[in-house]
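Pilot study result, target chain (105 residues):
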Amino acid sequence: MRAIILSKTGTGSSSVAPMDTYISPFNVGFGIVVTGTVNYTVQHTFDNVLQDGVTPTWYAHPTIASKTDNQDGNYAFPVTAIKLLVNSGTGTATLTVIQAGLVGA
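Predicted structure:
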């Protein structure tokens, strides 16, 4: 899979990065780069974000929550989508997500 890059400046949520839950094993790596002052959390959902009328329930990543510096992490279990939540600050957080298993996608 090509890298998905999501950025958020100021508070609020980024757009979402849908994942392919049919890939086995499900392996997703990600990294966050911070510019300026920002407090952020990586979030995931198990809901279908591509279906109209669905309001996803978002969960904080177990180790990448309320961070203020560059971080990296992974998901070894299936999630349907990942996003970035900027809790505070006026800087920018940029999330790069890569899911293994899709050759040439």
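One observation from the pilot: Residues 4-99 form a domain with the Jelly Rolls fold (CATH 2.60.120). A full batch analysis is planned for the follow-on phase.
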